[in-house]
Design a protein that fits this description.
Blueprint (H helix, E strand, L loop, with lengths): L4 H28 L2 H9 L9 E4 L2 E4 L18 E8 L4 H8 L4 H7 L5 H22 L8 E3 L5 E3 L9 E7 L2 E7 L4 E7 L6 H8 L2 H8 L6 H18 L11 E3 L9 E4 L3 H4 L3 E5 L5 E7 L5 E6 L10
Parallel strand pairs: 3-13
Antiparallel strand pairs: 1-2, 3-7, 4-5, 6-7, 8-12, 9-10, 11-12
Helix pairs in contact: 3-5
């Protein structure tokens, strides 16, 4: 029996989307393959500078790596403020033990599934630091927080945790993590290290908008890595705020990305008015890294801190 044209079109479209996602995944896995060695080069600190390292309850983050100041003793979200925290996920064994104690049984079970200690410890540090930061805003023990998850896996505070109206998101690239907290509304954050990628032009041509591709291909080779990662992280932050994965709508969301160009959402499905309801903030959490925060609200303000002394509250 011959299928109706609409059904055939829909099936073809689904097959095309699956192929696009698979292709993008292959390319992006290649893109990330050498991240460990590249990041190590980026974050290497001269031994003579060790005295300038911030000690964070056993967690150290060199101020060459994170130029943001320490947070104030009292944390208050005022008006349309968005707070962004930067932290290292490379922690001492004592700190890791303390952060492990804050995790839920489900999180501990998930941590136990990692094959390598490096990835397991990063997960524990990331979730433990997130709990500690959120616990400071809510003035409760980090271990008492409960999370709910969207169908896309985005975490949110369960209402019984007393976190009604507190929105957050997190992202990391190797050992550098960003945490964002606000009361304005659902928020997204992303971060990446800037590095040359052979497949950049191919990725932009296949998965970004025609306008973005035309602008990108005209850029000098030296500026393409920053431009590429500006494109990638700004779209990822936006789609995380909207609750969608990055492979769903890459070419339907247009953002600014040229060097020194202010971060803005330019169009969503070709609609500039819809884009105007969003705010996009560029972040520079460390030399050689770019980040972005996205939220569906106007006139938002950013305050950026390092994770110095996040553990003011007792864990447990």
């Amino acid at each position: 029996m011959k299928l109706p044209r609409a059904t055939l079109n829909r099936e073809d479209r689904h097959q095309g989307q699956r192929a696009e996602k698979q292709y993008a995944q292959v390319l992006f896995e290649k893109l990330l393959a050498n991240r460990c060695s590249e990041l190590a080069k980026l974050v290497t600190v001269d031994k003579t500078q060790v005295s300038r390292t911030l000690i964070i309850n056993g967690l150290s983050l060199p101020d060459e790596i994170n130029p943001w100041p320490a947070a104030p003793a009292e944390l208050r979200l005022v008006g349309h403020e968005i707070h962004v925290w930067a932290s290292s996920l490379s922690v001492s064994s004592d700190v890791l033990t303390g952060l492990t104690a804050t995790l839920s049984p489900l999180e501990k079970e998930h941590a136990g599934k990692f094959k390598f200690d490096l990835h397991r410890n990063r997960f524990i540090a990331g979730r433990g630091l997130l709990r500690t930061i959120l616990g400071r805003y809510l003035q409760i023990s980090p271990s008492k927080l409960d999370f709910a998850y969207s169908p896309q896996g985005k975490p949110a505070l369960d209402l019984k945790s007393g976190g009604a109206g507190l929105h957050f998101n997190l992202a990391h690239t190797e050992d550098l993590a960003l945490f964002v907290v606000t009361r304005v509304g659902p928020v997204g954050v992303d971060v990446e290290s800037i590095r040359p990628v052979k497949e950049m032009s191919d990725l932009v041509a296949r998965f970004f908008s025609q306008r973005e591709n035309e602008l990108f291909q005209k850029l000098p080779t030296s500026t393409k890595p920053r431009a590429f990662f500006n494109l990638w992280i700004r779209k990822e932050a936006l789609l995380k705020a909207a609750g969608e994965g990055i492979m769903c709508s890459l070419n339907l969301v247009e953002v600014s990305f040229l060097p020194d160009e202010p971060a803005r959402v330019l169009a969503i499905s070709g609609d500039s008015e819809k884009a105007a309801s969003w705010s996009l903030h560029a972040l520079s959490p460390a030399p050689g890294f770019v980040g972005a925060v996205a939220i569906q609200a106007r006139n938002t303000s950013l305050r950026c801190w390092n994770s110095n002394d996040v553990g003011r509250l007792p864990v447990g």
